[in-house]
Amino acid sequence: MFQPLPVFVGLRYSLAREHSFFVSFITWVSLLGVAVGVAALITVLSVMNGFEAELRGRLLSLSAHATLTSGGSGITDWQAKIAELQGSAGLEGAAPFLDTDAMLSRQSSMSGAIVRGIDPESEPKVSSIDDAMREGKLSDLKPGSNRIILGRMLAYQLQVGAGDTVVVMIPGNAAGGAFAPRLQEFQVVGTFEVGLQEHDSVLALIHLSDAEALRGLQGPTGIRLKFDDVLEAPRLSRIAAARLNPPLKLRDWTEENEAYFRAIRIEKTMMGLILMLIVAVAVFNIVATLVMVVNDKRTDIAILRTLGLSPRGVLAVFMTQGVLIGWIGAALGVGLGLALALNVDVIVPFLEANFGFHIMDPDVYYISGIPSELHPQDVVRIAVAALLLTLIATVYPALQASRTQPADALRYE
């Protein structure tokens, strides 16, 4: 006979067909509930991981992985600083920048903006601006030419295009401390579109030398860094910054965009808790199933006890039955969840084409598809949580079964 005996009996009870229809129905509902809950959790978290990766990519398309700043003053020896950074672990590129808060105006239109002075030759080392250009080229920015490249939404707000001129106004002080803004006219030579409003509606690019002249500074106010692994950038940037003497103030992308990613983490946590309720409902069904099975098998339990099976053995019998239901459901859920998460790019277009709707309407959203990024650690955590919940669910009914007294159960038989 298969050993150990409690596991053998538990498997026989689970696979037996003489249960009542209601008990069998609840058993299948429990199994499918666990499977659906696990599959939904894996799929939804994979989609949210995909959106997080998409957002991170768009945020960092024009923002570096880390920045070194001087606190507002110009870095006159920035070329030497970049030379000191070369060879740092994981560093792919470094480029100077000079950000200025400004107002841009064109006739009756006016909009606030961040005017960023860049070096067109080194900028592609730290950003993907070349891929985002819609009109013109980054090389059109020449020193002393007073040319500007606008985000697409910013250009739309100002109602300008390539060849038009805009006036850039920044705060300044006249003699005696009176407020006197500085005004400079720039010619629009291009537009870019990243697909993120934070960039497209507020960012304008000019040559670094023009930005220095506009601000009256010598050199950029910071250096932007890019690393080969964006997730390791916070650690690698600290290693790179330690090479500089005197040091510059360091900020990495997780600090600059902390609000975005904190919101995503909160959403993922809440979504996970909500979807875990599906598994919880299935777990309660497992409890109900085992309670009914225990009541149905009181005579069998009494006979097993009289034959020498210990209360612990009876406990193992019914825990085996409950765990089998939960674990088969979890295995089916993991399989279904993996299939959905890995094929979202095929399933969603199929549903949209056959049912005539758009989940992400391209006329409204920058992202027209549903991204998915499967993290193995998420799958493991979800599967383990489902297994633990089903294991816990078997404890109470199994304890009740182990406390059955043979004399009481067989009294009226």
Label this structure with key terms.
alpha+beta; 16 helices; 17% strand
What does this structure look like?
The protein is of the alpha+beta class and 413 residues long. The chain folds into two domains: 204 residues, no CATH class; 191 residues, no CATH class. The protein is 53% helix and 17% strand. It is built from 16 helices and ten strands. A six-stranded mixed barrel has the order 2-3-8-5-7-6, surrounded by four helices. The two termini are 28 Å apart. The relative contact order is 0.19. The model has no long low-confidence stretch (mean pLDDT 79).
Helices, strands, pairings?
Blueprint: H1 5-15, H2 21-59, E1 66-69, H3 78-85, E2 91-106, E3 109-118, H4 129-132, E4 133-135, E5 147-151, H5 152-158, E6 165-170, E7 182-192, H6 197-200, E8 203-207, H7 208-215, E9 222-227, H8 233-241, E10 249-252, H9 253-256, H10 258-296, H11 298-306, H12 311-342, H13 344-355, H14 376-393, H15 395-402, H16 406-410
Parallel strand pairs: 3-8, 5-7
Antiparallel strand pairs: 1-9, 1-10, 2-3, 2-6, 2-9, 4-7, 5-8, 6-7
Instruction: Please mark out the parts with pLDDT under 50 across 5 or more consecutive residues, or reply none.
Output: none
Give me the Rg, rounded. 32 Å
The proportion of strand residues reads 15-25%
The DSSP helix count reads 16
Shape: elongated
- What is the first-to-last residue Cα distance? 28 Å
Mean pLDDT: 79
Instruction: Give, in order, the helices and strands.
Output: HHEHEEHEEHEEHEHEHEHHHHHHHH
Biggest β-sheet: count, sense, barrel?
A: 6 strands, mixed, barrel
Task: Walk across the major sheet and give the strand order.
Answer: 2-3-8-5-7-6
Count of discrete structural domains: 2
Quick one: how many beta strands? 10
Classification by helices and strands: alpha+beta
Helix-residue proportion? 40-55%
